[in-house]
Amino acid sequence: MLNQLDQTPLFDWRSIQIPTILTADEILDKVFKKAARKTEPGPTRIQSASDNINVTLKKFELSFPSLNNLHPFYRELADLTVGIDKMKKSLGALKWCRHSVLRVSRESIEKIRNVPGSKEQIEVLRGSYGRMSSLVHQISKDLVFLDSARRTLKAIPSVDLNKTIVVIAGFPNVGKSQLVKILSTGKPAVASYPFTTKKILLGHMELGRLGMILIDTPGLLDRPLEKRNPIEKQAIYAMEHLANLIIFLLDPSEECGFTMEQQESLMAELQQGFSRIPQWIMENKSDILERDSPNLSISCTEHKGIDTIKERLVEFVAVREKEVIRSRLF
Asked: Most CB atoms closer than 10 Å: which of 51, 92, 205, 323?
């Protein structure tokens, strides 16, 4: 299975640079101080204030990723953690405010040019500032929400979707993290994952031209599906857009605290839910208990079977990269 990124150029998540979203009061304080530097309280101050509000809000709008151009994995993450509809609505509110402020500016500039003296001009200026302030304050909640969304989106791990991505699945304590660390070159990186308070472990292998990323996903694949809430279920299916291969680890010794019946039940559910993705079944902790099974028997503790896994991964990456190259040519 090819990642969608291999077929269609999509937004690069790593390029997202969303600035801190200012509050309504912070925007107005900044804008009016800058406008006050203009020598006379005439059209130039009104124009300066409206231009700066427009520029500031437009910068916030454009800094958020184009949701229609996101890889499905990131689009689902954004929807789960922030809410795409809510984000679109808040970004739309900023656009409405910008246009409304520009309209107020045009009306006020026309009005100020037709009043007789400076006193009347100051009154028009104050009225213009008041209307602009009211408009910006109307989107106060949207600004606060977007700054919170910015922090949440920033916490989503950036994964190079051009690489072959292998997800290590299974119940807790079956050896998933240990396997990622053994197979990875260098020190694996631990990244915050917005679905849970737990962590994901990202390991890298220098295989093929593009390389490989190994992902251990605690908190996502360690419970039967029927016991998960809707967000957790969506989180699991979001992985379908990311993984090129799933390695499911079993612990026949049951030292992990879960019976083989429980483990095999989860395995069967994942096989059904991720039927389009290649899946390898491996049995860890053969140093404690090894049974007669068609699955590859390994021991992360004693590194038994690790060379076999690496050989299989080399073959898998070679085949996949040929498919990627072929898809790009045709």
From this structure: 205
